[in-house]
Each structure stands twice: as C-alpha cells, then as structure tokens.
Amino acid sequence: MSYRKANIWKTADWITILLYLVMVAAGWFSICGASYDYDSLGWFNPSGRPGSQLVWISLSFVLVFIIMMLESDFYNVFSYIIYALIILLLIATIFLAPDIKGSHSWLVFGPLRLQPAEFAKFATALAIAKLMSSYGFNLTKSRDFLIILALIFLPLLCILLQKETGSALVFLAFFFVLYREGMTGYVLLTGLCAMTFFVISTKYSDVVSGITPLGELITLSIIQAMLIVLTYIKQRGSLLLNILLGIVAASLLIAYVVSLFIPVNFVWAVIGMILASSCYLIFLSIKQWVWHHLLVILFAALSVGFLYSVDYVFDEMLEPHQQMRIKVTLGLEDDPGGAGYNVNQSKIAIGSGGLTGKGFLNGTQTKLKYVPEQDTDFIFCTVGEEEGFLGASAVLVLFAVFIIRLINLAEKQKTVFARVYGYSVASIFFFHLLINIGMVTGITPVIGIPLPFFSYGGSSLWGFTILLFIFLRLDASRKER
Predict the structure, then answer these.
(1) Could you tell me if residue 199 is inside a domain?
(2) If DSSP codes are grouped into helix, strand and coil, which group holds residue 84?
(3) 13 and 133 assigned to the same domain
(4) Residues 372 and 464 in one domain
(5) What's the number of domains the chain is made of?
(6) Are 375 and 449 found together in one domain?
C-alpha cells in the first residue's frame, strides 16, 4: 500500500464515518429487536435476519475499504460507464426478476437476492455530477436541462416498469440538487403545487356546496392567488395589483348577484377570473415586452389542466392498492384491516413506547408480529416502541446531524463534480428519511422505501454505503491537494 493511499484514512472525514458506524450499529440492534422471538435462531446465525444483516454489514466494510483505496479520479472517469451498466441491469431486471409481492425488482441467485434499484441511486448521482461538471454545461440551456432530466427519468422509468413505485420516486430528490446548481425555483414550486392540487382535489372530490364542487373551487382559487402573487413578485406596481384584484372582485360580485336568482357554480366564476387575468397579462407582455407574464400564464394553464386530469390519473394510472393507500392517508377511507393496517399498527407500536420505551426486546407489538414489515420499511416503529419518544427523537437528531454534515462537506468541495455528487447524496438521504418517517407515522402514503442503515436488507445497506463512501473518498482527495 502506497503512502498516498494510506494517507487517505488520515484525510477522511471521521465524523461522518463515526455517524455511519453508529447508525449501522443502531440499525442492527433494531433489527434484532424487531426479529427476536422465543424460537429465535440467535442473533449471529446467518439463517436469521440479525445474523444475515451482520454478514451484509461485514461485507459493507470490505466495500468501504475498496472504495477508499481507489483513486478519486476513477469515479469521475468511469461515471457514464457505471451509469450505463446499471441501466442495462435495470432493464434486464424487468424481464428476469421473479414476481415477489407484486414487484419484479429482485434478481435471485440461489439464496442471494439483490435489488438493482438501490445501486441506481449512486450511479445516477455520478452521471449527473459528471455532466454538470463538463465544460460549457449550463442548466439554463434547454438542451443541457433536458439531458439532465433524461439521466434522472431513465432509471426512474425502468424502476416503475419493475412496479417499484417507492424506489422510483426517490429519484425526484435530484431536483433539490438541480435547484442548488441554478435551476429556477419555479420547477420546485410547480412540483409542490401539483402535490397540493392533487391532495385537495382528491380529498374534496365528492364535497359539494349547492352545485359548486369544493375541491375544484379551492384548487382554482389557489391557482388564481398564485397567478397574482407570481406576477406581482416580478413586476411590482399598485396599478397592476389593483387591476388583478379588481378582476377577482368583479367576478365574485357578478357570480353572487346571479346566485340570488338562479343556482350558480362558483367554479365558473373562478375560471372566469383566471381567463380575464390571463388576457390582461397577455396584453401587458405584448405592451411592455415582459415575457415573465407568459410564463405565469403557462403555469396557470398547466395547473388547470392538471386539476382536471387528477381523476383520470387516480382512476386509470394508479393500482387499486395505491388508490386505497392514498384514500386511507387522506381520511377518505377507513380500512383498519386492509390498506390502513400497517400504519395503524405502527402508530400503536410507536405510541405504546411512551417517553422512554418498553426496553430492548420488550416491545409487545413487535414481538407478537402485529406490524408487517417491522424489520424493513417499518423498522422505525420498533425504535419507537422499545426506546420511546427519547430514542425515536435521538434517531431523528442523528439523521439531521448526518445530513447537515453532508451538506457542509458538499459546500467545501473544490470541484463541481464533487459538490454536485455531495448534494446528491444528502438529497437522497433526506428524501428517504422524510418519506419513511412520514409513511410509518401515517403522514404520507405507504410506498415502501427503507430507512437508511436501519431497515433490514443487503441491497439497501450496500447501496447507501457505496453512495456515501464515494463522496467521502472525493472529500478525502480534496484535502490532499
């Protein structure tokens, strides 16, 4: 071993490595607690889940050593090749993987099962970092932006075809990276609005006041409000604001007067507001040559179109079990024995832990196997039951410190490649944490993604380990220069 390579361990960020080791150890003990029963094979027996996870952890340390020993330039030079190989593997998985719980995402080699989707995360992060660090790249150029979108959505589409919706949605985390690197905030705003419109229109789809559907009315009112706000932010002026507010007031007044004589669907009044406001903004864009107004109009038009496509997307594109999970999350259905069973039992387990928990191996909900997937996607309920509010909070604090540390390291990078990759790592961990905790506590629908380093699974552990330590290797090389 050369002196330079041996020196890698001196320049490595040991604070992050220590956080990694703590989370892996805590995750293993959580798996022990979730998998333990009176007929247990023992924690160190490879036939049981704790023993199997221990084997994966040991092999992860071997991966860490290999990753750190490779030259940092290796990851830059071979980024596209790694990405291409993973894409080919994802495509092969669609046709070769057996049906496991309705998904075709696992390649089976005897007793060994691997999920390529977990490795697609670091491969996509490398490809994005490589492209964004190339000479002349600019996110504001349509061509460059479309290429980046293709890099993100290609593995996402392949994973969707494997019927792994949860793993596919993780790739949306890369939009946080694009925002950091100069993408307009309107893209994130559009995504946030789309989720808001979907939730509101779905939750209130059957609620009617008179002849006015409240879901449509609320959503269209938000679109009109966004139209005014986005216009005023770019071009402040009392006259502009007064005219737009005047259009709103006039539309509502006309609708109210008419409603005194005949029933009125106020949705049409709000649509009238949006059309009148859009016509005025078109006039301003031509008169003042302000193209921002046209973008605002496009946003409003796409929002209205999305609103009236929600029913089709929900009924025709989502699987029945996905529809039920969304309905349960939004409180539209009460299915405690079906789609809502996992979440209800998870809440009971977490709540029963109280402040300090029932103690290691003393959880009743988990020991009696009331919570499905309690050592994989729902591992956090084991933490909540055995360690209580304090233990669950400690895990969240640990992840918060870990993610903040990654962002801090990403900002210190001297190359665009390392910085973009670092932000990709932080974004993926943040997305996993946010969705998994939301899923276990009933805030978000159950989509089946693991809690990093805690959930049982070799592919998950290896994927997160490779993702993290490639960045730590890049960061270590920064300190060598």
Answers:
(1) yes
(2) helix
(3) yes
(4) yes
(5) 2
(6) yes
**Is residue 339 a contact partner of residue 333, using CB atoms and an 8 Å limit?**
yes
Residue 314: which of 169, 200, 223 has the closest Cα? Answer: 200
Q: Which residues make beta-bridge pairs with 213?
A: 208
Do both 255 and 370 map to the same domain?
Answer: no
**Residues 282 and 390 occupy one common structural domain:** no
Would 70 be classed as within a structural domain?
Answer: yes
The answer as to whether 405 is a domain residue is yes
Q: Which of 302, 317, 332 is the last residue of a domain?
A: 317
DSSP symbols for 226-243? HHHHHHHHHS--HHHHHH
SS3 per-residue string spanning 11-25? HCCHHHHHHHHHHHH
Give the domain range for residue 458: 3-140+353-480
- Give the separation between CA 78 and CA 89, rounded to whole angstroms: 17
DSSP-derived secondary structure for 304-335: HHHHTTHHHIIIIIS-HHHHHHHHHHTTS---
The answer to whether residues 203 and 78 belong to one domain is no
Q: What are phi and psi of 207, to 5 degrees?
A: -95, 125
How open is the CA angle 420-423-427, to the nearest 5 degrees? Answer: 135
Query: Tokens 């109280």 identify what position?
Result: 354
My answer on whether 358 and 312 are in the same domain is no
pTM of the shown model: 0.88
What sign has the CA pseudo-torsion 392, 395, 401, 407?
A: negative
Tell whether 164 is covered by a domain. Answer: no
Helix (H, G, I), strand (E, B) or coil at 270: helix
Q: What are phi and psi of 242, to 5 degrees?
A: -65, -40
| pLDDT by 10s per residue, the chain, length 481 | 454 555 788 889 999 999 999 999 999 999 988 877 654 556 777 777 888 899 999 999 999 999 999 999 999 999 999 999 999 999 999 998 888 877 888 888 877 889 999 999 999 999 999 999 999 898 888 899 999 999 999 999 999 999 888 889 999 999 999 999 988 887 888 888 888 888 888 888 888 888 888 888 999 999 999 888 888 776 666 777 788 888 888 888 998 898 888 888 899 999 998 999 888 888 878 877 767 778 888 888 998 998 889 888 888 777 787 777 787 777 777 666 565 777 788 888 888 888 888 888 777 776 667 777 778 888 998 899 889 999 999 999 999 999 999 999 999 999 999 999 999 999 999 999 999 999 888 888 888 889 999 999 889 999 999 999 999 999 998 776 5
DSSP state of 450: P
Sign of the Cα torsion 177, 182, 183, 185 reads positive
Of the candidates 402, 396, 447, 389, the residue with the CA atom closest to the CA atom of residue 428 = 402
